[in-house]
C-alpha cells in the first residue's frame, strides 16, 4: 500500500489533520484524559474536553501542548498515536509522510520534540513548516511572488505575526499571547471583580458568545455560573461585552505592539505592498467581533479576516503537501 501524505496543525487548542486527496479529516480538541493511578489513556479529543473540570480525582484531563509547543511529550505522543490509528493513516507496509506546523520562533529542541513525537506515534518522514507561512497559503495569499504579504495568526497558544515574500518569512514575531491567554484574562477579571471562580470552558464560551472589540456593534450580556469565593456556594452573575473587552485589553495591546514591531522592521518596498494588499487575520482569535477593525485603526493598514480563519493552517498544509517532493526536509 502506498504511504499517505498527511498535514497536521498541532495546535494548543485543537489538532486538525489533512489527508492528501481527502481534505480535512479530523478537527478535535488537543486534550487527553488519563487515569492518574494506571497512567492509562481514557479519552482523547472532544470526549476528553468534556471532562475538563468535571472528573473525579483519579482522572485528569491534560492539554499536552502549551504556547504552541509540546509541554508533555508522552501525552502528545499518545494523542497523535490515537488519531493516526483512528484515521487508519498507517499502511500495512508504510508510514505516512507528515507535514507539521509550528510557531515561527520555536527552538531546535522543541522542533526535535515535535518530530520525535510524530515518528513515535507512527509517522514516517516528518517535515516542519512555520505556522504563519502555512496560514498565509491557506488563506489564499500568493506568498511566492517578490511582493510583501502580512499575516497575523492568533491561535490558542501563540500569535504569529509575519511578513512573507518569495515563499519565505522576511520578518516575524511570535508571542505566547493568544486565545488561551484571553480565557485566563477573563477568568482572572471575574475572580477579582466578582469574587467568583469560573472554569476555562466558561471563560471561553463568554469570549466566543459576547466578545467584541467594537461595543457599538455588539454589546451583549451573558449569565455565567461559578463558585462564590466567599460563601463557597454556586452563584450566577451577568457579564457584559464591555467587561470582557476590559478583561482582554492588555493582551490585545500586546498583539498590536507585536504587529507594529514587525511593520517597523519590514523593508520599505514590502511595506508599500502591504498597504496595497492589507493584512490577513487568521486563527480562532480572528473570530472575535470587530478585531479586524480595531487592528485597522491601530496599524493604519486595512486588516481582513480570512474566509475560514480556523482552518487556514490545516488547509495550507494541504496545499504544501501537493508540492512536498519539491520541499527539502527541514
From TrEMBL:
Instruction: Write out the residues that bind ATP.
Output: 12-14, 156-158, 204-207, 284-287
**Record's protein name:** Cell shape-determining protein MreB
Keyword RNA-binding (UniProt): no
Q: Which cellular compartments is it found in?
A: Cytoplasm
Q: What Pfam families does its record include?
A: MreB_Mbl
What are the boundaries of the signal sequence?
none
Q: Tell me the name of the encoding gene.
A: mreB
The family annotation for this protein states: Belongs to the FtsA/MreB family.
Amino acid at each position: 500500500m502506498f504511504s499517505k501524505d498527511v498535514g497536521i496543525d498541532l495546535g494548543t487548542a485543537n489538532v486538525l489533520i489533512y489527508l492528501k486527496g481527502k481534505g480535512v479529516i479530523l478537527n478535535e480538541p488537543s486534550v487527553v484524559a488519563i487515569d492518574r493511578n494506571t497512567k492509562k489513556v481514557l479519552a482523547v479529543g472532544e470526549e476528553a474536553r468534556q471532562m475538563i473540570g468535571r472528573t473525579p480525582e483519579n482522572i485528569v484531563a491534560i492539554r499536552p501542548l502549551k504556547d504552541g509547543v509540546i509541554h508533555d511529550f508522552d501525552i502528545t505522543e499518545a494523542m497523535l498515536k490515537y488519531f493516526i490509528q483512528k484515521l487508519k493513516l498507517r499502511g500495512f507496509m508504510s508510514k505516512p509522510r507528515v507535514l507539521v506546523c509550528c510557531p515561527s520562533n520555536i527552538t531546535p529542541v522543541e522542533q526535535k520534540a515535535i518530530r520525535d513525537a510524530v515518528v513515535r506515534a507512527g509517522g514516517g518522514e516528518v517535515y516542519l513548516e512555520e505556522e504563519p507561512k502555512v496560514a498565509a497559503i491557506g488563506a489564499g495569499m500568493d506568498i511566492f511572488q517578490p511582493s510583501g504579504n502580512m499575516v497575523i495568526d492568533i491561535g490558542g497558544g501563540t500569535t504569529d505575526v509575519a511578513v512573507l515574500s518569495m515563499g519565505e518569512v522576511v520578518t516575524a514575531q511570535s508571542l505566547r499571547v493568544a486565545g488561551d491567554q484571553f480565557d485566563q484574562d477573563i477568568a482572572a477579571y471575574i475572580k477579582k471583580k466578582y469574587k467568583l471562580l469560573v472554569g476555562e470552558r466558561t471563560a471561553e464560551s463568554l469570549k466566543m458568545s459576547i466578545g467584541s472589540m467594537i461595543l457599538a456593534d455588539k454589546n451583549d450580556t451573558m449569565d455565567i455560573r461559578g463558585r462564590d469565593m466567599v460563601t463557597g456556594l454556586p452563584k450566577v452573575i451577568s457579564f457584559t461585552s464591555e467587561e470582557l473587552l476590559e478583561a482582554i485589553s492588555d493582551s490585545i495591546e500586546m498583539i498590536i505592539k507585536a504587529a507594529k514591531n514587525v511593520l517597523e522592521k519590514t523593508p520599505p518596498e514590502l511595506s508599500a505592498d502591504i498597504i496595497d494588499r492589507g493584512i490577513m487575520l487568521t486563527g480562532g482569535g480572528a473570530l472575535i467581533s470587530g478585531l479586524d477593525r480595531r487592528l485597522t485603526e491601530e496599524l493604519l493598514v486595512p486588516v481582513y479576516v480570512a474566509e475560514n480563519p480556523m482552518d487556514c493552517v490545516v488547509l495550507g498544509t494541504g496545499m504544501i503537501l501537493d508540492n512536498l517532493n519539491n520541499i527539502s526536509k527541514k
